[in-house]
Amino acid sequence: MTFTTDAWTRTAGVRTAIDELPFVQGLADGTLDRERFTYYMAQDALYLADYGRVLAALASQATDPDEMLFWAESARTTVVVERELHGAHVADLAAARRSPTCLAYTSYLASLTTQGSYAVAAAGVLPCFWIYQDVGDHLLRQAGALDGHAYGDWIGMYSDAEFAASVERAKAIVDRCAEGADDSTVQRMHEAYSTAARYEWMFWDAAWRRETWPV
Ligand SMILES: Cc1ncc(CN)c(N)n1
């Protein structure tokens, strides 16, 4: 069994929990209130700025030139394309501060790039690709046509064929890393993958609660 098939199976419960989140259900049928969506988009813009740095770090650690290019292009897409979407929804991004969950997730991913294992860091960024594609596909199926849908541009971005191709490439890189890795590295890759998958759940939950710092 490939690493990614195994990781997907091990985290099935997290994916079901994501699909059941009120935030995700509200995205699907368009009933999510604008305040929660705007909160989410502002946090996500902050997340993506840090995530772009994580992908750039992966590019710098890749020894294969094609993998280096893939991470570098993904960093560019994250900063340019996805942020365009955020700019269309959030008027004042400069006013936003990272929530506890946003800071915890990005700090965790950044920490993976400093622990000396390209394979573990690559596994840690994979849920950001794969879970969004999975959610985008589910939402597209549930929503049907996106014309006139309140969150159609968001759903369209993550159910898009180009995004799906990038997910396949990221999975292939992670599987290649796992094939050559020892048992303890594969174990750490699973830990990184499942932790990031849980953070994806937490990120949407935090947006639903419009999480703030306690003091
Ligand atoms: C929190 C989060 N995770 C993943 C994605 C998709 N790149 C995103 N925009 N935001």
TrEMBL record:
<dbReference type="GO" id="GO:0009228">
    <property type="term" value="P:thiamine biosynthetic process"/>
</dbReference>
<comment type="function">
    <text>Catalyzes an amino-pyrimidine hydrolysis reaction at the C5' of the pyrimidine moiety of thiamine compounds, a reaction that is part of a thiamine salvage pathway.</text>
</comment>
<protein>
    <recommendedName>
        <fullName>Aminopyrimidine aminohydrolase</fullName>
        <ecNumber>3.5.99.2</ecNumber>
    </recommendedName>
</protein>
<comment type="pathway">
    <text>Cofactor biosynthesis; thiamine diphosphate biosynthesis.</text>
</comment>
<keyword id="KW-0784">Thiamine biosynthesis</keyword>
<dbReference type="GO" id="GO:0009229">
    <property type="term" value="P:thiamine diphosphate biosynthetic process"/>
</dbReference>
<dbReference type="GO" id="GO:0050334">
    <property type="term" value="F:thiaminase activity"/>
</dbReference>
<dbReference type="Pfam" id="PF03070">
    <property type="entry name" value="TENA_THI-4"/>
</dbReference>
<dbReference type="InterPro" id="IPR016084">
    <property type="entry name" value="Haem_Oase-like_multi-hlx"/>
</dbReference>
<dbReference type="InterPro" id="IPR027574">
    <property type="entry name" value="Thiaminase_II"/>
</dbReference>
<dbReference type="GO" id="GO:0005829">
    <property type="term" value="C:cytosol"/>
</dbReference>
<comment type="similarity">
    <text>Belongs to the TenA family.</text>
</comment>
<dbReference type="InterPro" id="IPR050967">
    <property type="entry name" value="Thiamine_Salvage_TenA"/>
</dbReference>
<feature type="domain" description="Thiaminase-2/PQQC">
    <location>
        <begin position="22"/>
        <end position="209"/>
    </location>
</feature>
<keyword id="KW-0378">Hydrolase</keyword>
<dbReference type="InterPro" id="IPR004305">
    <property type="entry name" value="Thiaminase-2/PQQC"/>
</dbReference>
